[in-house]
Amino acid sequence: MARPTTPKPLLTDSATPARSRPRKPRDPAQPRLLLDPMPSRVEPCLALLTAKPPKGPKWSYEIKWDGWRGAIHIDQSGIGILTRNGHDWTRRFPTVEEGVRRLNVGSAILDGEVVCFDDQGRSDFNLLQKSLGGPRGKRVAGEAAFVAFDLLYLDGHDLRNTELSTRRHLLEALIPAGDPIIRFSEDFNGDPDEFFEAACTHGLEGIIAKDRNSTYRSGRLGDWLKIKCVASDAFVIVGYEPSAGAFGGFGSLLLAARKAGQLVYVGSVGTGFNEREASALRKMMEKIPWKRKSPPVPYSGKRQVVWQQPTLIAEIAYRGWTGDGKLRQSSYKRLREQQDDAIIFDLDSFELTKLSERS
Length: 359
Description:
The protein is an alpha+beta fold. It has helices at residues 94-100, 125-131, 164-174, 192-201, 275-286, 347-358, and strands spanning 48-49, 59-63, 68-75, 78-83, 108-115, 145-154, 157-158, 182-184, 187-188, 206-211, 224-228, 232-242, 250-259, 262-269, 291-292, 306-308, 313-317, 320-321, 327-328, 331-336.
């Protein structure tokens, strides 16, 4: 998995390697060439969750980075760092913005992940969230880096209809070797089971498998697959079970996922909280403008529940699903927000993936 020290030449029909650099003023004597307009935003390609890595020559494999999905836009007007939902968070990642300025490019869109690394070089979402001041903090992340894994636009050319292997070839040549802030996400082409096992052994979140011949298609369409060492996803909190003796005054949180465009109850979580997290979470729940007397999801249980407007989103680790569609061995990890790209778990996409695995 070692990266070569000399960048690969950009793909070109000429004998001379093409180099990406700021454009010079056009010579009026030269013909006017058509250039692709640069998109203001690209809906990202998302990975489908699957239980094990796919095999075959068409697949390449990368580390699954534990951070915030982001897109870097570079043009003559400046640099923009957009979250997956289109929020402009450039000012919150000054180190990434400064790193982008070192790229020798006139215009580009890089797809990747904003991360913070721990002492062992692993990306850690909790470190990133802490650097920003917590789930709803407004601080600037002074130690963030950007791991780039795709290139969607380069110097007047829209690359989304180009196969992944070519896009990544161009991307690798664009990023300076050894740059501490803007990094290239290396791929692994050996046995995927061994790569996945190594990722889990080293405490990583998992791996991503990508169809090297695929074009860039927005949405969760199966060109990219994610395989997690321990399953964790975002679920919306729809209520809590009060308990005077528990941290924060609640015994468990009731959770919901999406199915056919609606929220459905998928069980509860009552572990994983420390005293500080539980107290902070309870204060957030008390600030929600209104409580519901009736559940916001179909519910036939007998618990005493304080129902809430489905506003807060929690990242939940779990070991699978029960036969009646509830989370098994769930544990609270952290609070997420829609603005930090938390996407509520979609049961339709999950069931479609399981169906494709059986076929």
